[in-house]
Amino acid sequence: MRRVVCPGSFDPVTNGHIDIISRASTLFDEVIVAVGVNQSKARLFTADERLSMLAEVCDGYDNVRIDSFDGLLTDFCRDRGARAIVKGLRAVSDFDYELQMAQMNSSLAAVETVFVPTSPEYSFLASSLVKEVATFGGDVSRLVPPLVLKRLTERLSGRGGAGRPGETG
Ligand code: PNS
């Protein structure tokens, strides 16, 4: 079985992430979407909230499952029996850092990184920008799934539970 890990912070998941997850699901037998839950980083959404939004928006993909990890990504890949990591590349500017991480990861474990070019309509899209635009009342409805838009709106208006409005993470 060809199993791949698609890692990220997903704070929150965007249509750009879904584009990569969906295309990875056609290339591999199983895709594990892995939410990094590094406690030291400030996030708008808790790990549980990020996992639950991903679970809902990936519900239609039979070979995609959602998981979380803390610590090294390569340890997680080893534990789950995954020999590959999939990453989206939005622009050349992503490449330097992504290449460095891919080389570090393959030096730590027998894990290859596969880069998938982001679809052009999402090449500018990042969770941090979505949060910033939404914080100032901009329209992000074309950039995130409806469920995420609802949670973002609630969180930023202070109606959405334990979050921290204004933090961009
Ligand atoms: O969505 P992001 O914030 O770009 O995701 C970054 C993530 C979680 C994929 C990256 O920070 C990561 O892999 N963290 C795990 C820690 C680790 O393995 N570090 C060494 C990478 S070379």
Question: Which labels suit this protein?
Answer:
alpha/beta; Rossmann fold; 6 helices; 5 strands; 18% strand; disordered C terminus; binds 4'-phosphopantetheine
In short:
With 169 residues, the protein is α/β, with parallel strands linked by helices.
Write a structural description.
This protein has a 5-stranded parallel sheet, sandwiched between helices. The protein is globular and about 45 Å long. The protein is α/β, with parallel strands linked by helices and about 170 residues long. α1 links the parallel β1 (about 5-10) and β2. The termini are far apart. The protein has one domain: Rossmann fold. The longest helix has 17 residues, at about 90-110. The protein has 6 helices and 5 strands, in the order βαβαβαβαβαα. Mean pLDDT is about 95; it is low at about 165-169. Bound molecules: 4'-phosphopantetheine (PNS).
Note the topology.
Layout: E1 3-8, H1 15-27, E2 30-36, H2 47-57, E3 64-69, H3 73-80, E4 84-89, H4 92-108, E5 112-117, H5 127-135, H6 146-156
Parallel strand pairs: 1-2, 1-4, 2-3, 4-5
Please tell me what the overall shape is: globular
Helix content: 40-55%
Tally of strands: 5
Corresponding CATH superfamily? HUPs
CATH topology group: Rossmann fold
The CATH class label is Alpha Beta
The major sheet is characterized as: 5 strands, parallel
Distance between the termini: 35 Å
List segments where confidence is low: pLDDT < 50 over at least 5 consecutive residues: 164-169
Give the amount of beta strand, in percent. Answer: 15-25%
Q: What is the ordering of alpha helices and beta strands?
A: EHEHEHEHEHH
Oligomer: single chain
Strand order of the largest sheet: 3-2-1-4-5
How many separate domains?
1
Mean pLDDT across residues:
93
* Each distinct ligand: 4'-phosphopantetheine
CATH architecture call? 3-Layer(aba) Sandwich
